Structure formats: C-alpha cells, structure tokens
Amino acid sequence: MNKGFFITFEGGEACGKSTQIKKLKDYISAVAKNDKFVFVREPGGTPLTEELRKYILNYEIDKPLPMTELLLFCACRHENVYKNILPALNEWKIVVADRFYDSTIAYQGAARNIMSMEDILDLTKKIIGDVKPDLTFYFKLEPEEAFKRKTGLGELDRIEKEGLEFHRKIAKGYDYIASLEKDRFYCIDASKSIDEIFEEILRVLKEKLPQIF
Ligand SMILES: Nc1ncnc2c1ncn2[C@@H]1O[C@H](COP(=O)(O)OP(=O)(O)O)[C@@H](O)[C@H]1O
Ligand SMILES: [Mg+2]
Fold first, then answer.
1. Could you say which of 20, 31, 55, 196 would form a disulfide bridge with 192 (CB–CB 3.0 to 4.6 Å)?
2. Does residue 142 line the site of ligand 1, with CB under 6 A?
3. Domain total of the chain
C-alpha cells in the first residue's frame, strides 16, 4: 500500500504518453502544486540510469542480447524505485511515471518472448518488492495509427508492417496485465484529440485525488 499516489502512463510507441505527461506538468505548475509531484521516466531518473538510457535505447555499436536488455531495464527500475519513487511516496507525494513494469511485460514478455509474462511479474516482485501503481493510464492505439504518427506517412513499408505484428503483441501484453490488475487500469482511446484525452485524464484525476485536482 503506497502512502502517496503512484500514477503510470503506458502504451505502445507514439500513442501520446509523453504529450499528455507534458500537459499534466504544465497544468500542475499553473495551479502551483509542483511540490506535491515527482515526475520520472523509464529507463532513467538517476545520473547512472539516465546515462544507461542512452545505451539501452540507442546503442547501435553492440546490440544487447534480449535477456541483457530485459535485465538492464530491471536494473534501472530498481534504482528508480529505491532512489526516487519509494522515497517520494513515503513523503506522501504523487509520482507520475512515463512507463513502468507493464512496459516490460508487454515488450520483453509478450512481444519479444524473452520469458513468460508470469515470470516477468515474479522477477519484478524480486526487484522492486510490492511497489505497484495506484493508477495506470493505458493508451490504446491501433498500431497502423501509431506508425502514421511516427512517420507522418499514410503507406507502410515492409519493415513497418513487420513492426505492426510486434505492436499487436505489445497490445496483447498490455491487455493481459490489464485483465490481471483491473483495479488500477484506466483505458484511454488514444485516437481522440490531445485536448479530449487531457480532459479525460483530468476528470479521472479529479475523481481519484479530489484534494489535489
Ligand atoms: N491525441 C493525439 N492525436 C494525434 N497526434 C498525437 C496525439 N498525441 C500525440 N500525438 C503526436 O504523436 C507523436 C508521438 O507522441 P508522444 O507523446 O511522443 O508519444 P509516446 O510518448 O507515447 O511515444 C507526437 O508527434 C505527438 O505530437
Ligand atoms: Mg514518450
């Protein structure tokens, strides 16, 4: 049970997570509640993990093996939880994370099949204990639509089509974890406009945290 409140933003590529987090940040600074919030992203959040982020996401010289990639994400999460997220929650703060362990279940579990989704959940428990989001905004977007946003093009080439299969598996992973942990998942139709989605997010936050929003 968290003392503060832990919110995560999840979903595939280009579904609008970072856009909405930025809007939330702006909203919070406008209403001067900055001191109650801590924003984190994965991988990252500490000097070491921000450095590792560059290698995990963009290192072309020596691609990590799939299991290495999984463990690097887990190592970064361990750092982020014990150095940032837990201390903030223990001070009754609201933590907002751009991705968390559901991403590992979806990407490394369902899509890459490095280990089963159940095993990733077990491993996660060993790595971060009982820390769990109180609320997860799950952005659902058809992979075709996400690709169009990324490339700005209508037609998909062969590699992008291959990517579609990968993204369908990611969606399956999210649907799996959402079905296991229904209480914390709030599903967003990410094809709506940026403003419509933000209104929806604010409405949910007003319901969950009436003293803040
Ligand atoms: N609701 C939306 N409708 C149309 N385009 C969007 C929407 N939300 C975000 N975008 C655009 O899609 C791209 C990816 O958004 P981003 O927030 O970076 O996604 P993510 O963080 O989920 O990968 C950006 O160019 C952004 O401006
Ligand atoms: Mg993003």
1. 196
2. no
3. 1
CA of 147 to the centre of ligand 2 (A): 14
pLDDT at 154: 61
On whether the CB atoms of residues 164 and 116 are closer than 8 A, the answer is no
Ligand 1 near 200 CB (within 6 A): no
Task: Tell me the residue range of the domain where 86 lies.
Answer: 5-208
What is the tens place of the pLDDT at every residue in 100-146? 999 999 999 999 999 999 999 999 999 999 999 999 999 999 988 88
Which domain CATH number covers 126? 3.40.50.300
Residue 20, in any domain of the structure: yes
Higher pLDDT, 151 or 202: 202
**How far apart are the CA of 41 and the centre of ligand 2, in A?**
9
Asked if residue 213 is part of any domain, the answer here is no
Angle between helical axes of 117-128 and 158-180 (0-180°, round to 10): 60
Q: For residue 96, list its beta bridge partners.
A: 7, 39
76 located within any domain: yes
Mutate to test the pocket of ligand 1, among 8, 10, 96, 149 (most ligand atoms within 8 A of CB): 149
Quick check: is 139 in a domain?
yes
Return the H-helix or E-strand segment holding 59: none
Tokens describing residue 79: 């750092």
